[in-house]
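Attaching the record inline, Q. Sequence:
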Amino acid sequence: MPNDLQTSTAHHILVDLSKSRKNVESAEVRIGKLHTPVEHAARKTLQQTFSPPVKISPGISFSLHVRHKRLFGMKAEDEDVDFDTDEIFRVSDARGNPERQEYVKSHEKTKIVVKLFRSITTERAVSSSDENPELQPTTDEIIRICPRFRILVIGKTGVGKSSLINHAFGVEKALTSDDKPGEANIDTEFISNQNDRFVLHDSKGFEPGDEDNLKIVQDFIERRKNMTALKDQLYAVWLCFEIPRAGGRLLETGTEKFLTLKRKGKLGDVPVIIVFTKYDKLIDRMDRILDESSLKGLSDTDVKKLIKNKAETELQKICIGPLKTFAGPDIPYATISTKEEHKETLTRLIQETENRVRQHFALEASVMTSIAQRVDPRLKINASIEVGKRRYWKALASSTAFKNRMMRDCLKVLHTDIVTVWNFSDPHRYLYSTEFRTMMVNMVNKLDSDDEPAADPNKRFVVGLSMVGTIAAIVSAMAGPAAPIVVPIAAGIVLAVWVHDVYQMSHDTLQHFMSYIVSLTFVLRTLYIVSENQELTRRAIKLAAASYLESPMSREVTTQIQEYVRGLKLLERADRDTLDKIFELMQLFDINAEQDSELRAQIRAAVGSLPDDPW
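Structure, as predicted:
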Protein backbone atom coordinates (compact mmCIF):
# COMPACT_ATOMS: atom_id res chain seq x y z
CA MET A 1 0.00 0.00 0.00
CA PRO A 2 1.42 3.43 -0.85
CA ASN A 3 2.27 5.78 1.97
CA ASP A 4 1.00 9.37 2.17
CA LEU A 5 3.88 10.66 0.05
CA GLN A 6 2.92 8.25 -2.71
CA THR A 7 -0.78 9.10 -2.60
CA SER A 8 -2.62 12.03 -4.13
CA THR A 9 -6.21 12.86 -4.96
CA ALA A 10 -7.78 13.93 -8.23
CA HIS A 11 -9.98 16.93 -7.48
CA HIS A 12 -10.96 18.35 -10.88
CA ILE A 13 -10.50 17.54 -14.57
CA LEU A 14 -10.88 19.91 -17.50
CA VAL A 15 -10.83 18.86 -21.16
CA ASP A 16 -10.09 21.72 -23.58
CA LEU A 17 -11.08 20.92 -27.19
CA SER A 18 -10.92 24.48 -28.49
CA LYS A 19 -8.10 23.62 -30.92
CA SER A 20 -9.54 20.28 -31.98
CA ARG A 21 -11.82 19.78 -34.96
CA LYS A 22 -13.52 16.83 -33.29
CA ASN A 23 -16.89 17.19 -31.61
CA VAL A 24 -17.29 15.24 -28.39
CA GLU A 25 -20.60 13.59 -27.60
CA SER A 26 -19.62 12.38 -24.12
CA ALA A 27 -16.61 11.71 -21.92
CA GLU A 28 -15.99 9.59 -18.85
CA VAL A 29 -13.13 9.51 -16.34
CA ARG A 30 -12.07 6.03 -15.30
CA ILE A 31 -9.93 5.70 -12.18
CA GLY A 32 -9.66 2.12 -10.98
CA LYS A 33 -13.23 0.86 -10.59
CA LEU A 34 -14.67 4.38 -10.49
CA HIS A 35 -16.32 5.57 -13.74
CA THR A 36 -17.81 9.06 -13.69
CA PRO A 37 -19.03 11.30 -16.55
CA VAL A 38 -17.41 14.61 -17.46
CA GLU A 39 -19.98 17.37 -17.94
CA HIS A 40 -20.09 19.75 -20.91
CA ALA A 41 -19.07 23.28 -19.91
CA ALA A 42 -18.61 26.52 -21.86
CA ARG A 43 -17.85 26.28 -25.57
CA LYS A 44 -15.65 23.31 -26.47
CA THR A 45 -14.69 22.35 -22.95
CA LEU A 46 -15.76 19.63 -20.55
CA GLN A 47 -15.10 19.56 -16.84
CA GLN A 48 -15.92 17.61 -13.72
CA THR A 49 -15.16 18.18 -10.05
CA PHE A 50 -14.85 15.09 -7.87
CA SER A 51 -16.51 15.47 -4.50
CA PRO A 52 -15.09 13.99 -2.40
CA PRO A 53 -11.78 13.90 -4.32
CA VAL A 54 -10.74 10.51 -5.72
CA LYS A 55 -7.59 8.87 -4.36
CA ILE A 56 -4.98 7.83 -6.90
CA SER A 57 -1.63 6.13 -6.42
CA PRO A 58 1.21 4.91 -8.67
CA GLY A 59 0.17 2.01 -10.88
CA ILE A 60 -3.60 2.51 -10.64
CA SER A 61 -5.46 2.62 -13.96
CA PHE A 62 -6.44 6.16 -14.99
CA SER A 63 -7.96 7.07 -18.36
CA LEU A 64 -10.38 9.38 -20.13
CA HIS A 65 -12.90 7.60 -22.35
CA VAL A 66 -14.19 9.90 -25.12
CA ARG A 67 -17.01 9.32 -27.58
CA HIS A 68 -16.96 11.60 -30.62
CA LYS A 69 -20.20 12.65 -32.32
CA ARG A 70 -21.46 10.91 -35.44
CA LEU A 71 -21.07 12.85 -38.67
CA PHE A 72 -23.28 12.24 -41.72
CA GLY A 73 -24.47 8.85 -40.48
CA MET A 74 -20.98 7.55 -39.66
CA LYS A 75 -20.49 5.31 -36.66
CA ALA A 76 -19.53 7.05 -33.41
CA GLU A 77 -15.81 6.91 -32.64
CA ASP A 78 -14.65 5.85 -29.17
CA GLU A 79 -11.22 6.78 -27.89
CA ASP A 80 -9.31 6.13 -24.66
CA VAL A 81 -6.68 8.59 -23.44
CA ASP A 82 -4.49 6.82 -20.88
CA PHE A 83 -2.64 8.53 -18.04
CA ASP A 84 0.61 7.20 -16.63
CA THR A 85 0.14 7.61 -12.87
CA ASP A 86 3.83 6.92 -12.28
CA GLU A 87 4.63 9.92 -14.49
CA ILE A 88 2.07 12.06 -12.63
CA PHE A 89 3.88 11.39 -9.36
CA ARG A 90 7.32 11.94 -10.90
CA VAL A 91 6.21 15.36 -12.17
CA SER A 92 4.62 16.20 -8.82
CA ASP A 93 7.74 15.20 -6.89
CA ALA A 94 9.90 17.33 -9.17
CA ARG A 95 7.82 20.38 -8.23
CA GLY A 96 8.38 19.94 -4.53
CA ASN A 97 5.16 19.03 -2.75
CA PRO A 98 2.74 21.97 -2.77
CA GLU A 99 -0.78 21.35 -1.56
CA ARG A 100 -2.39 22.01 -4.95
CA GLN A 101 -0.90 21.00 -8.32
CA GLU A 102 -1.93 20.65 -11.92
CA TYR A 103 -0.96 17.85 -14.27
CA VAL A 104 -1.36 18.80 -17.94
CA LYS A 105 -1.52 16.21 -20.72
CA SER A 106 -1.74 17.01 -24.43
CA HIS A 107 -3.35 14.47 -26.73
CA GLU A 108 -3.37 15.39 -30.40
CA LYS A 109 -5.03 18.84 -30.22
CA THR A 110 -6.77 18.22 -26.91
CA LYS A 111 -5.49 19.67 -23.64
CA ILE A 112 -6.41 17.80 -20.43
CA VAL A 113 -5.78 19.39 -17.03
CA VAL A 114 -6.05 17.32 -13.83
CA LYS A 115 -5.99 19.24 -10.54
CA LEU A 116 -4.44 17.33 -7.65
CA PHE A 117 -4.10 17.64 -3.89
CA ARG A 118 -1.10 16.15 -2.11
CA SER A 119 -1.78 17.08 1.54
CA ILE A 120 -5.40 15.91 1.83
CA THR A 121 -6.01 13.35 4.59
CA THR A 122 -6.92 9.86 3.49
CA GLU A 123 -10.15 10.07 5.51
CA ARG A 124 -11.42 12.84 3.24
CA ALA A 125 -10.52 11.10 0.02
CA VAL A 126 -12.65 8.41 -1.54
CA SER A 127 -10.77 5.39 -2.74
CA SER A 128 -11.54 4.54 -6.35
CA SER A 129 -12.31 1.00 -5.21
CA ASP A 130 -14.58 2.03 -2.33
CA GLU A 131 -18.15 1.18 -3.29
CA ASN A 132 -19.82 2.65 -0.22
CA PRO A 133 -18.24 5.95 0.95
CA GLU A 134 -19.70 7.79 3.92
CA LEU A 135 -22.51 10.23 3.19
CA GLN A 136 -20.77 13.56 3.55
CA PRO A 137 -22.37 16.82 2.35
CA THR A 138 -20.79 18.02 -0.87
CA THR A 139 -20.71 21.52 0.61
CA ASP A 140 -18.31 20.28 3.32
CA GLU A 141 -15.71 19.61 0.67
CA ILE A 142 -16.40 22.92 -1.12
CA ILE A 143 -16.01 24.84 2.14
CA ARG A 144 -12.81 22.96 2.96
CA ILE A 145 -11.31 24.03 -0.36
CA CYS A 146 -12.84 27.51 -0.45
CA PRO A 147 -14.27 28.57 2.94
CA ARG A 148 -14.94 32.20 1.99
CA PHE A 149 -15.41 34.49 -0.98
CA ARG A 150 -12.39 36.81 -0.87
CA ILE A 151 -12.90 40.31 -2.29
CA LEU A 152 -10.97 43.59 -2.40
CA VAL A 153 -13.07 46.79 -2.40
CA ILE A 154 -11.30 49.96 -3.51
CA GLY A 155 -12.80 53.42 -3.10
CA LYS A 156 -12.42 56.76 -1.40
CA THR A 157 -14.04 57.49 1.94
CA GLY A 158 -17.68 58.48 1.42
CA VAL A 159 -18.13 56.63 -1.87
CA GLY A 160 -20.50 54.16 -0.20
CA LYS A 161 -18.34 51.07 0.32
CA SER A 162 -19.76 50.14 3.72
CA SER A 163 -23.36 50.42 2.56
CA LEU A 164 -22.53 48.35 -0.52
CA ILE A 165 -20.97 45.54 1.52
CA ASN A 166 -23.80 45.62 4.09
CA HIS A 167 -26.47 45.11 1.45
CA ALA A 168 -24.57 42.76 -0.87
CA PHE A 169 -23.70 40.31 1.90
CA GLY A 170 -26.63 40.87 4.25
CA VAL A 171 -24.79 42.23 7.28
CA GLU A 172 -25.68 45.16 9.50
CA LYS A 173 -22.29 46.82 9.76
CA ALA A 174 -19.40 46.14 7.41
CA LEU A 175 -16.05 46.64 9.13
CA THR A 176 -14.17 48.66 6.52
CA SER A 177 -11.21 50.90 7.21
CA ASP A 178 -13.55 53.90 6.76
CA ASP A 179 -14.79 53.07 10.26
CA LYS A 180 -11.27 52.90 11.68
CA PRO A 181 -9.20 55.96 10.74
CA GLY A 182 -5.50 55.24 10.62
CA GLU A 183 -5.99 51.49 10.21
CA ALA A 184 -6.31 51.23 6.42
CA ASN A 185 -4.24 48.09 5.98
CA ILE A 186 -5.08 46.19 2.79
CA ASP A 187 -3.94 42.89 4.34
CA THR A 188 -6.49 43.11 7.18
CA GLU A 189 -9.18 40.46 6.79
CA PHE A 190 -12.63 41.73 7.74
CA ILE A 191 -14.98 38.83 8.53
CA SER A 192 -18.51 39.44 9.79
CA ASN A 193 -20.01 37.18 12.44
CA GLN A 194 -23.37 37.72 10.68
CA ASN A 195 -22.05 36.17 7.44
CA ASP A 196 -18.71 34.39 7.67
CA ARG A 197 -18.77 33.20 4.06
CA PHE A 198 -16.94 36.26 2.74
CA VAL A 199 -13.71 37.98 3.70
CA LEU A 200 -13.23 41.65 2.85
CA HIS A 201 -10.03 43.51 2.10
CA ASP A 202 -10.36 47.28 1.96
CA SER A 203 -8.36 49.97 0.15
CA LYS A 204 -8.83 53.73 0.42
CA GLY A 205 -8.67 54.35 -3.32
CA PHE A 206 -6.26 56.30 -5.50
CA GLU A 207 -5.89 59.93 -4.53
CA PRO A 208 -4.23 62.39 -6.94
CA GLY A 209 -0.46 62.17 -6.60
CA ASP A 210 -0.63 59.16 -4.27
CA GLU A 211 1.62 56.59 -5.96
CA ASP A 212 2.11 54.60 -2.75
CA ASN A 213 -1.38 53.12 -2.60
CA LEU A 214 -1.25 52.04 -6.24
CA LYS A 215 1.92 50.08 -5.44
CA ILE A 216 0.33 48.63 -2.27
CA VAL A 217 -2.72 47.41 -4.22
CA GLN A 218 -0.61 46.01 -7.06
CA ASP A 219 1.66 44.13 -4.65
CA PHE A 220 -1.34 42.75 -2.73
CA ILE A 221 -2.97 41.41 -5.89
CA GLU A 222 0.34 39.91 -7.02
CA ARG A 223 0.88 38.16 -3.65
CA ARG A 224 -2.61 36.71 -3.65
CA LYS A 225 -2.27 35.59 -7.26
CA ASN A 226 0.84 33.57 -6.41
CA MET A 227 -0.72 31.73 -3.47
CA THR A 228 -1.24 28.07 -4.33
CA ALA A 229 -4.29 27.32 -2.16
CA LEU A 230 -7.58 28.46 -3.69
CA LYS A 231 -8.82 29.67 -0.29
CA ASP A 232 -6.02 32.26 -0.12
CA GLN A 233 -6.50 33.71 -3.59
CA LEU A 234 -8.36 36.92 -4.41
CA TYR A 235 -11.50 36.31 -6.48
CA ALA A 236 -12.69 39.81 -7.35
CA VAL A 237 -11.98 43.52 -7.06
CA TRP A 238 -14.73 46.13 -6.85
CA LEU A 239 -13.38 49.55 -7.86
CA CYS A 240 -15.95 52.06 -6.61
CA PHE A 241 -16.72 55.57 -7.86
CA GLU A 242 -19.54 57.89 -6.93
CA ILE A 243 -21.34 58.95 -10.12
CA PRO A 244 -19.98 62.45 -10.79
CA ARG A 245 -22.05 65.42 -11.80
CA ALA A 246 -21.85 66.60 -15.41
CA GLY A 247 -18.38 68.04 -16.00
CA GLY A 248 -16.84 66.19 -13.04
CA ARG A 249 -13.77 64.04 -13.62
CA LEU A 250 -14.34 60.32 -13.38
CA LEU A 251 -10.84 58.83 -13.49
CA GLU A 252 -7.94 60.21 -11.47
CA THR A 253 -4.35 59.56 -12.56
CA GLY A 254 -3.87 56.72 -10.04
CA THR A 255 -7.04 55.02 -11.23
CA GLU A 256 -5.96 55.31 -14.86
CA LYS A 257 -2.63 53.68 -14.01
CA PHE A 258 -4.42 50.86 -12.16
CA LEU A 259 -6.73 50.20 -15.11
CA THR A 260 -3.74 50.31 -17.46
CA LEU A 261 -2.09 47.57 -15.40
CA LYS A 262 -5.25 45.50 -15.70
CA ARG A 263 -5.60 46.09 -19.45
CA LYS A 264 -2.00 45.01 -20.01
CA GLY A 265 -2.43 41.81 -17.97
CA LYS A 266 -0.16 42.92 -15.11
CA LEU A 267 -2.83 42.09 -12.49
CA GLY A 268 -3.48 38.54 -13.71
CA ASP A 269 -6.91 36.99 -14.10
CA VAL A 270 -8.56 38.48 -11.03
CA PRO A 271 -11.74 40.23 -12.24
CA VAL A 272 -11.86 44.00 -11.72
CA ILE A 273 -15.43 45.30 -11.80
CA ILE A 274 -16.17 49.01 -11.85
CA VAL A 275 -18.96 50.00 -9.46
CA PHE A 276 -20.71 53.33 -9.97
CA THR A 277 -22.40 54.14 -6.65
CA LYS A 278 -25.31 56.36 -5.52
CA TYR A 279 -27.41 55.84 -8.63
CA ASP A 280 -30.39 57.17 -6.65
CA LYS A 281 -28.81 60.64 -6.57
CA LEU A 282 -28.52 60.61 -10.36
CA ILE A 283 -32.20 59.64 -10.61
CA ASP A 284 -33.10 62.53 -8.29
CA ARG A 285 -31.12 64.98 -10.43
CA MET A 286 -32.83 63.79 -13.61
CA ASP A 287 -36.21 64.14 -11.90
CA ARG A 288 -35.49 67.74 -10.88
CA ILE A 289 -34.49 68.87 -14.36
CA LEU A 290 -37.42 67.29 -16.19
CA ASP A 291 -39.42 69.61 -18.39
CA GLU A 292 -42.90 69.60 -16.82
CA SER A 293 -44.54 70.15 -20.20
CA SER A 294 -43.15 66.81 -21.43
CA LEU A 295 -45.01 64.92 -18.69
CA LYS A 296 -48.55 65.75 -19.75
CA GLY A 297 -50.68 62.65 -20.19
CA LEU A 298 -47.99 60.29 -18.82
CA SER A 299 -48.74 57.79 -16.06
CA ASP A 300 -46.49 57.49 -13.00
CA THR A 301 -44.95 54.36 -14.55
CA ASP A 302 -44.21 56.20 -17.80
CA VAL A 303 -42.65 59.10 -15.90
CA LYS A 304 -40.34 56.69 -14.02
CA LYS A 305 -39.31 55.09 -17.31
CA LEU A 306 -38.58 58.51 -18.79
CA ILE A 307 -36.40 59.45 -15.81
CA LYS A 308 -34.51 56.14 -16.02
CA ASN A 309 -33.89 56.62 -19.74
CA LYS A 310 -32.51 60.11 -19.14
CA ALA A 311 -30.33 58.75 -16.32
CA GLU A 312 -29.00 56.04 -18.64
CA THR A 313 -28.14 58.63 -21.29
CA GLU A 314 -26.31 60.71 -18.68
CA LEU A 315 -24.44 57.63 -17.42
CA GLN A 316 -23.24 56.81 -20.90
CA LYS A 317 -21.92 60.36 -21.31
CA ILE A 318 -20.21 60.94 -17.96
CA CYS A 319 -19.27 57.41 -16.81
CA ILE A 320 -19.51 54.49 -19.20
CA GLY A 321 -18.28 56.24 -22.33
CA PRO A 322 -15.11 57.66 -20.70
CA LEU A 323 -14.48 54.36 -18.92
CA LYS A 324 -14.66 52.27 -22.10
CA THR A 325 -12.59 54.79 -24.03
CA PHE A 326 -9.80 54.35 -21.54
CA ALA A 327 -10.18 50.76 -20.28
CA GLY A 328 -11.59 49.09 -23.41
CA PRO A 329 -15.10 47.95 -24.38
CA ASP A 330 -14.97 44.71 -22.33
CA ILE A 331 -14.45 46.30 -18.92
CA PRO A 332 -17.21 44.97 -16.60
CA TYR A 333 -19.20 47.55 -14.66
CA ALA A 334 -22.40 47.96 -12.65
CA THR A 335 -24.40 50.98 -11.54
CA ILE A 336 -25.81 50.54 -8.05
CA SER A 337 -27.83 52.10 -5.28
CA THR A 338 -28.53 50.59 -1.88
CA LYS A 339 -31.78 52.52 -1.47
CA GLU A 340 -34.85 50.29 -1.14
CA GLU A 341 -36.42 51.38 -4.44
CA HIS A 342 -33.25 50.59 -6.40
CA LYS A 343 -32.00 47.40 -4.74
CA GLU A 344 -32.40 45.45 -7.97
CA THR A 345 -29.21 47.23 -9.15
CA LEU A 346 -27.22 45.15 -6.65
CA THR A 347 -28.39 41.97 -8.36
CA ARG A 348 -26.69 42.99 -11.59
CA LEU A 349 -23.42 43.63 -9.74
CA ILE A 350 -23.55 40.24 -7.99
CA GLN A 351 -24.42 38.42 -11.22
CA GLU A 352 -21.56 40.10 -13.07
CA THR A 353 -19.15 39.23 -10.26
CA GLU A 354 -20.19 35.57 -10.11
CA ASN A 355 -19.95 35.29 -13.90
CA ARG A 356 -16.39 36.64 -13.94
CA VAL A 357 -15.30 34.46 -11.01
CA ARG A 358 -16.73 31.39 -12.78
CA GLN A 359 -14.69 32.21 -15.90
CA HIS A 360 -11.36 32.50 -14.11
CA PHE A 361 -11.42 30.27 -11.02
CA ALA A 362 -12.30 26.73 -10.00
CA LEU A 363 -15.96 25.88 -9.51
CA GLU A 364 -15.65 26.09 -5.71
CA ALA A 365 -14.91 29.83 -5.97
CA SER A 366 -17.99 30.62 -8.05
CA VAL A 367 -20.19 28.46 -5.79
CA MET A 368 -18.83 30.30 -2.75
CA THR A 369 -19.55 33.62 -4.47
CA SER A 370 -23.20 32.55 -4.72
CA ILE A 371 -23.24 31.27 -1.15
CA ALA A 372 -21.72 34.46 0.31
CA GLN A 373 -24.00 36.95 -1.45
CA ARG A 374 -27.48 37.66 -0.04
CA VAL A 375 -28.98 39.55 -2.95
CA ASP A 376 -29.85 37.15 -5.76
CA PRO A 377 -31.91 34.01 -5.02
CA ARG A 378 -31.44 32.84 -8.62
CA LEU A 379 -27.75 32.37 -7.93
CA LYS A 380 -28.61 30.40 -4.80
CA ILE A 381 -30.76 28.03 -6.85
CA ASN A 382 -28.12 27.71 -9.58
CA ALA A 383 -25.44 27.02 -6.97
CA SER A 384 -27.64 24.33 -5.39
CA ILE A 385 -27.88 22.67 -8.78
CA GLU A 386 -24.09 22.86 -9.26
CA VAL A 387 -23.52 21.33 -5.83
CA GLY A 388 -26.10 18.63 -6.52
CA LYS A 389 -24.60 17.77 -9.90
CA ARG A 390 -21.23 17.06 -8.32
CA ARG A 391 -22.46 14.00 -6.45
CA TYR A 392 -25.91 13.24 -5.11
CA TRP A 393 -28.35 14.77 -7.60
CA LYS A 394 -26.68 13.37 -10.69
CA ALA A 395 -27.76 9.82 -9.80
CA LEU A 396 -31.01 10.21 -7.88
CA ALA A 397 -32.69 7.47 -9.91
CA SER A 398 -29.89 4.92 -9.62
CA SER A 399 -27.66 6.15 -6.81
CA THR A 400 -24.71 4.02 -5.75
CA ALA A 401 -23.88 6.61 -3.07
CA PHE A 402 -27.16 5.84 -1.29
CA LYS A 403 -26.79 2.06 -1.49
CA ASN A 404 -27.53 0.38 1.87
CA ARG A 405 -28.31 3.75 3.48
CA MET A 406 -31.39 4.68 5.46
CA MET A 407 -33.67 7.07 3.59
CA ARG A 408 -33.51 9.56 6.46
CA ASP A 409 -29.71 9.72 6.09
CA CYS A 410 -30.00 10.26 2.34
CA LEU A 411 -32.49 13.10 2.85
CA LYS A 412 -30.32 14.64 5.56
CA VAL A 413 -27.33 15.04 3.26
CA LEU A 414 -29.53 16.49 0.48
CA HIS A 415 -31.07 18.87 3.02
CA THR A 416 -27.71 20.02 4.40
CA ASP A 417 -26.29 20.85 0.97
CA ILE A 418 -29.29 22.97 -0.04
CA VAL A 419 -29.56 24.85 3.27
CA THR A 420 -25.80 25.56 3.31
CA VAL A 421 -25.94 27.18 -0.13
CA TRP A 422 -28.73 29.57 0.93
CA ASN A 423 -26.57 30.81 3.84
CA PHE A 424 -29.29 32.48 5.89
CA SER A 425 -28.52 34.37 9.08
CA ASP A 426 -29.35 31.37 11.25
CA PRO A 427 -27.26 31.48 14.46
CA HIS A 428 -29.59 29.00 16.19
CA ARG A 429 -29.28 26.60 13.22
CA TYR A 430 -33.05 26.22 12.99
CA LEU A 431 -32.79 25.18 9.34
CA TYR A 432 -30.52 22.25 10.28
CA SER A 433 -32.68 21.20 13.22
CA THR A 434 -34.44 17.86 13.53
CA GLU A 435 -37.74 19.75 13.82
CA PHE A 436 -37.39 21.53 10.49
CA ARG A 437 -36.15 18.43 8.69
CA THR A 438 -39.10 16.49 10.12
CA MET A 439 -41.45 19.24 8.95
CA MET A 440 -40.06 18.98 5.42
CA VAL A 441 -40.31 15.17 5.36
CA ASN A 442 -43.92 15.34 6.51
CA MET A 443 -44.66 18.03 3.92
CA VAL A 444 -43.32 15.81 1.13
CA ASN A 445 -45.23 12.84 2.50
CA LYS A 446 -48.47 14.85 2.61
CA LEU A 447 -48.03 16.22 -0.91
CA ASP A 448 -47.07 12.83 -2.37
CA SER A 449 -49.96 11.00 -0.71
CA ASP A 450 -52.80 13.52 -1.03
CA ASP A 451 -55.66 12.20 -3.12
CA GLU A 452 -56.40 15.49 -4.83
CA PRO A 453 -57.14 15.15 -8.55
CA ALA A 454 -54.23 15.72 -10.90
CA ALA A 455 -54.00 19.14 -12.45
CA ASP A 456 -55.61 19.59 -15.85
CA PRO A 457 -52.66 20.04 -18.25
CA ASN A 458 -54.75 22.53 -20.20
CA LYS A 459 -55.28 24.64 -17.09
CA ARG A 460 -51.82 24.69 -15.61
CA PHE A 461 -51.17 27.53 -13.24
CA VAL A 462 -49.51 30.63 -14.62
CA VAL A 463 -46.02 30.58 -13.17
CA GLY A 464 -43.67 33.41 -12.28
CA LEU A 465 -44.97 36.61 -10.74
CA SER A 466 -48.61 35.56 -10.53
CA MET A 467 -47.63 32.44 -8.56
CA VAL A 468 -45.43 34.45 -6.23
CA GLY A 469 -48.25 36.97 -5.88
CA THR A 470 -50.42 34.11 -4.69
CA ILE A 471 -47.84 33.22 -2.05
CA ALA A 472 -47.60 36.90 -1.06
CA ALA A 473 -51.33 36.98 -0.41
CA ILE A 474 -51.10 33.79 1.66
CA VAL A 475 -48.14 35.13 3.64
CA SER A 476 -49.99 38.35 4.40
CA ALA A 477 -53.11 36.44 5.48
CA MET A 478 -51.17 34.07 7.74
CA ALA A 479 -48.89 36.62 9.35
CA GLY A 480 -51.62 37.96 11.61
CA PRO A 481 -50.85 40.29 14.52
CA ALA A 482 -49.99 37.79 17.23
CA ALA A 483 -51.53 34.43 16.40
CA PRO A 484 -48.95 31.60 16.15
CA ILE A 485 -48.34 30.19 12.69
CA VAL A 486 -50.07 26.83 12.35
CA VAL A 487 -48.40 24.46 9.91
CA PRO A 488 -50.70 21.54 8.98
CA ILE A 489 -47.78 19.11 9.26
CA ALA A 490 -46.08 17.94 12.43
CA ALA A 491 -42.57 19.18 13.25
CA GLY A 492 -41.87 16.73 16.04
CA ILE A 493 -43.07 13.32 14.84
CA VAL A 494 -42.08 11.74 11.54
CA LEU A 495 -45.30 10.64 9.86
CA ALA A 496 -43.63 9.25 6.73
CA VAL A 497 -43.05 5.51 7.18
CA TRP A 498 -40.75 5.32 4.14
CA VAL A 499 -38.13 7.49 5.87
CA HIS A 500 -37.18 4.50 8.04
CA ASP A 501 -36.63 2.24 5.02
CA VAL A 502 -33.31 1.37 3.43
CA TYR A 503 -32.77 3.10 0.09
CA GLN A 504 -33.73 1.07 -2.93
CA MET A 505 -34.04 2.06 -6.55
CA SER A 506 -37.75 2.60 -7.23
CA HIS A 507 -40.17 5.10 -8.72
CA ASP A 508 -41.47 6.01 -5.25
CA THR A 509 -37.97 6.71 -3.96
CA LEU A 510 -37.16 8.96 -6.91
CA GLN A 511 -40.43 10.84 -6.43
CA HIS A 512 -39.69 11.41 -2.72
CA PHE A 513 -36.18 12.71 -3.47
CA MET A 514 -37.33 15.06 -6.25
CA SER A 515 -40.22 16.36 -4.14
CA TYR A 516 -37.92 16.99 -1.17
CA ILE A 517 -35.31 18.88 -3.23
CA VAL A 518 -37.80 21.13 -5.03
CA SER A 519 -40.10 21.70 -2.04
CA LEU A 520 -37.19 22.61 0.26
CA THR A 521 -35.83 25.00 -2.38
CA PHE A 522 -39.20 26.73 -2.74
CA VAL A 523 -39.70 26.98 1.02
CA LEU A 524 -36.26 28.62 1.30
CA ARG A 525 -37.08 30.89 -1.64
CA THR A 526 -40.21 32.02 0.20
CA LEU A 527 -38.19 32.39 3.42
CA TYR A 528 -35.76 34.66 1.56
CA ILE A 529 -38.65 37.02 0.83
CA VAL A 530 -40.07 36.80 4.35
CA SER A 531 -36.84 37.15 6.32
CA GLU A 532 -35.22 40.09 4.46
CA ASN A 533 -31.74 39.05 5.63
CA GLN A 534 -32.75 39.31 9.29
CA GLU A 535 -31.84 36.68 11.87
CA LEU A 536 -34.13 33.71 11.31
CA THR A 537 -36.93 32.84 13.70
CA ARG A 538 -39.01 29.69 13.88
CA ARG A 539 -42.05 31.85 13.13
CA ALA A 540 -40.56 33.02 9.81
CA ILE A 541 -39.61 29.45 8.86
CA LYS A 542 -43.07 28.13 9.69
CA LEU A 543 -44.65 31.01 7.79
CA ALA A 544 -42.61 30.17 4.67
CA ALA A 545 -43.39 26.45 4.95
CA ALA A 546 -47.12 26.97 5.54
CA SER A 547 -47.36 29.51 2.71
CA TYR A 548 -45.73 27.19 0.22
CA LEU A 549 -47.82 24.21 1.33
CA GLU A 550 -51.05 26.19 0.95
CA SER A 551 -50.09 27.70 -2.40
CA PRO A 552 -51.15 26.23 -5.76
CA MET A 553 -47.45 25.92 -6.59
CA SER A 554 -46.93 23.00 -4.19
CA ARG A 555 -49.68 21.01 -5.92
CA GLU A 556 -48.34 21.94 -9.34
CA VAL A 557 -44.82 20.78 -8.44
CA THR A 558 -46.14 17.50 -7.04
CA THR A 559 -48.29 16.82 -10.10
CA GLN A 560 -45.42 17.46 -12.52
CA ILE A 561 -43.07 15.20 -10.54
CA GLN A 562 -45.65 12.42 -10.38
CA GLU A 563 -46.29 12.63 -14.12
CA TYR A 564 -42.55 12.62 -14.85
CA VAL A 565 -41.77 9.62 -12.62
CA ARG A 566 -44.80 7.71 -13.85
CA GLY A 567 -43.54 8.05 -17.42
CA LEU A 568 -40.09 6.58 -16.71
CA LYS A 569 -39.42 3.10 -18.07
CA LEU A 570 -35.83 2.40 -17.03
CA LEU A 571 -34.65 4.16 -13.87
CA GLU A 572 -31.03 3.25 -14.61
CA ARG A 573 -31.10 5.61 -17.62
CA ALA A 574 -33.13 8.42 -16.06
CA ASP A 575 -30.44 10.30 -14.14
CA ARG A 576 -29.67 12.99 -16.73
CA ASP A 577 -33.35 13.57 -17.53
CA THR A 578 -34.10 13.80 -13.80
CA LEU A 579 -31.55 16.58 -13.38
CA ASP A 580 -33.12 18.44 -16.30
CA LYS A 581 -36.59 18.02 -14.80
CA ILE A 582 -35.46 19.37 -11.42
CA PHE A 583 -33.94 22.38 -13.16
CA GLU A 584 -37.17 22.89 -15.11
CA LEU A 585 -39.24 22.80 -11.91
CA MET A 586 -36.92 25.32 -10.25
CA GLN A 587 -37.93 27.84 -12.91
CA LEU A 588 -41.50 27.88 -11.61
CA PHE A 589 -40.39 30.37 -8.94
CA ASP A 590 -38.35 32.57 -11.27
CA ILE A 591 -38.95 36.30 -10.91
CA ASN A 592 -36.63 39.20 -11.63
CA ALA A 593 -35.00 41.49 -9.08
CA GLU A 594 -37.49 44.33 -9.46
CA GLN A 595 -40.43 42.00 -8.93
CA ASP A 596 -38.69 40.51 -5.91
CA SER A 597 -38.30 43.97 -4.34
CA GLU A 598 -41.96 44.78 -4.99
CA LEU A 599 -43.01 41.50 -3.42
CA ARG A 600 -40.97 42.14 -0.29
CA ALA A 601 -42.58 45.56 0.03
CA GLN A 602 -46.05 43.97 -0.22
CA ILE A 603 -45.52 41.58 2.68
CA ARG A 604 -43.20 43.68 4.89
CA ALA A 605 -46.01 45.34 6.82
CA ALA A 606 -47.85 42.05 7.24
CA VAL A 607 -44.86 40.12 8.60
CA GLY A 608 -43.44 42.82 10.85
CA SER A 609 -41.33 42.16 13.96
CA LEU A 610 -43.39 39.73 16.00
CA PRO A 611 -42.40 37.40 18.88
CA ASP A 612 -41.04 34.01 17.90
CA ASP A 613 -43.15 30.83 17.93
CA PRO A 614 -42.28 27.39 19.25
CA TRP A 615 -42.05 24.64 16.64
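Confidence is low (pLDDT under 50) at residues 1-5, 119-131, 453-465. The longest strand covers residues 45-56.

More tomorrow.
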